[in-house]
Design brief:
It is a single chain. By secondary structure, the protein is mainly α. α8 packs antiparallel against α9. The protein has a two-stranded antiparallel ribbon.
């Protein structure tokens, strides 16, 4: 009897301990998001202290300290949203784990910003407003503060709903809205805004078409060949050479501007030379890697995985070099205006401002990046290393073509457009194969329209959400910026 009582006692104790463990586990899961928010807040406070220490001016400027905190908040949001476009395809293709992707992106984004980021940035985001139309030093500072805060809030909201949006377009919208609130509609350079609006359509379409063309090339020259491995030995080194040449051209144009100005023609020649060298090096490596592989599609994924990882790293470096300066442009403008008492169309970016941008991106990526990485990499359409490689190549080629045409484009729009392009091409190809097989398999034509729609390879809900976010990014950031500027102007000017 005593033994039964003891067993009942221990059973009750185990059950109670189990309940306590579940409560503790639930508490940990609920508190996990708060840890990320707490670390981000700590970084923002450190950035403000950084500004107080390193800002060189006639006196301590609380405006610069506040702007540095907002700039850090913006950088964290860039890391949470923008970087997913570079790493999402590689993660979705299982070429690397989420942890490896975050580590590579954090290192290469920071390196790109600090080593190859521009020394000079347009404070009014590529000529959106005329600085001379803004009446007074204080008005200009509050306009830039409103632009920075509104764009950061908008990118944060887009990340929360799971929509990859353009950081550059958010800043453009913020500057435009603040400029209109400060000086009226006449202050805005509307032809420039028209060109940017045109890029909303051109960049994702161009990125999607180029990605689809590369996928068609891989399918026709490698995947649908009788001897896939022999075809891969012939064409994979060519694709690796193209990748090396494209990124060499891109990084020569964007990354060497601190040392020497390189025009597009010279950059292309440098890219061609590097493409030939890399092609010669990769041929024996691909041949050695392909030895013993079975003649099936799964084997081809092995040959594309390493080039895909390298392309993702290079995309992150290029993104850090190109986009971080645009994001911290309003902060650099505020620092310049407070330091010299004047404002200009272009200013130097202090090193401490670039450090805030670079490290903020890394923190944002590590703390909040996985959500958008999964969205871009696996929730829009299914990717494998070949398809993801097409997206990476498309992103770099499209940026070079846009630079040649003089179009201001968004790396976000291009990369996501490439993912859509790959998915829609697969849909088109699947429908074409189905039509061809109708004669041999009449049952294939009996699939109900509802089932055909369910089998679409691109998720329409994500497609519509992302397109809607792209369309409203500039007006939403502009309206928010105008309201914030009017509030700041009423309180402090």
């Amino acid at each position: 009897m005593a033994d039964e009582e003891t067993d009942r006692h221990w059973h009750t104790l185990d059950r109670d301990l189990g309940r306590i463990s579940k409560v503790e586990y639930g508490t940990q899961m609920a508190a996990r998001p708060m840890v990320g928010i707490g670390i981000a807040l700590a970084f923002i406070i450190i950035a403000a202290l950084f500004a107080a220490i390193f800002f060189v001016g006639p006196s301590t400027s609380y405006v610069v300290i506040a702007a540095a905190a907002i700039g850090a908040y913006m950088a964290v949001n860039i890391g949470a949203n923008d970087v997913a476009n570079n790493m999402g395809p590689a993660v979705g293709a299982n070429a690397m784990t989420m942890g490896v992707a975050i580590a590579i992106a954090a290192i290469f984004e920071s390196a790109g910003a600090l080593l190859a980021g521009g020394d000079v940035v347009s404070t009014i985001s590529k000529g959106i407003i005329d600085p001379q139309s803004v009446a007074g030093h204080d008005v200009f500072i509050w306009a830039m503060m409103a632009a920075l805060l509104s764009s950061a809030i908008w990118v944060n909201m887009a990340t929360w709903v799971g929509a990859p949006v353009s950081t550059t377009h958010s800043v453009v919208g913020g500057v435009m809205g603040a400029g209109i609130a400060a000086a009226g509609f006449a202050a805005v350079n509307w032809p420039t805004m028209g060109t940017i609006a045109l890029s909303w359509v051109i960049s994702p379409v161009l990125g999607g078409v180029i990605a689809a063309l590369f996928l068609w090339f891989i399918k026709s020259t490698i995947i649908y060949q009788d001897d896939k491995i022999a075809a891969a030995r012939k064409w994979v080194p060519v694709l690796i050479g193209i990748m090396a040449g494209v990124f060499a051209t891109y990084l020569t144009m964007k990354g060497l501007k601190k040392i020497v100005s390189v025009d597009l023609g010279t950059a292309i020649l440098i890219g061609l030379a590097i493409a030939v060298v890399v092609y010669g090096i990769s041929r024996p490596l691909v041949r050695r890697q392909s030895e013993g592989l079975e003649n099936r599609n799964k084997s081809l994924k092995v040959l594309f995985s390493i080039p895909l990882v390298l392309s993702a790293a290079l995309l992150s470096f290029a993104h850090g070099a190109n986009d971080v300066a645009n994001a911290v442009g309003p902060l650099a403008a505020i620092v310049h205006a407070e330091q010299f008492g004047t404002f200009a169309g272009e200013v130097n970016i202090p090193l401490w401002v670039m450090v805030i941008g670079a490290f903020g991106i890394s923190f944002g990526l590590i703390l909040f990046g996985p959500k958008l990485i999964r969205m871009v990499g696996s929730q829009i359409t299914k990717l494998n290393p070949m398809r993801a490689y097409c997206v990476a190549l498309s992103a770099a080629i499209t940026v070079i073509m846009a630079s040649w045409l003089g179009l201001p484009v968004s790396s976000t729009h291009i990369a996501v457009g490439g993912v859509f392009g790959v998915g829609f091409f697969r849909e088109y190809h699947a429908e074409r194969q189905l039509r061809k097989s109708k004669a041999a398999r009449p049952a294939a034509s009996q699939i109900a329209p509802e089932e055909r729609r369910r089998r679409k390879l691109v998720r329409r809900s994500h497609f519509l959400t992302i397109i809607a976010a792209w369309v409203i990014t500039v007006p939403a950031a502009a309206i928010m910026s105008g309201v914030i500027f009017l509030a700041l102007h009423a309180m402090f000017v």
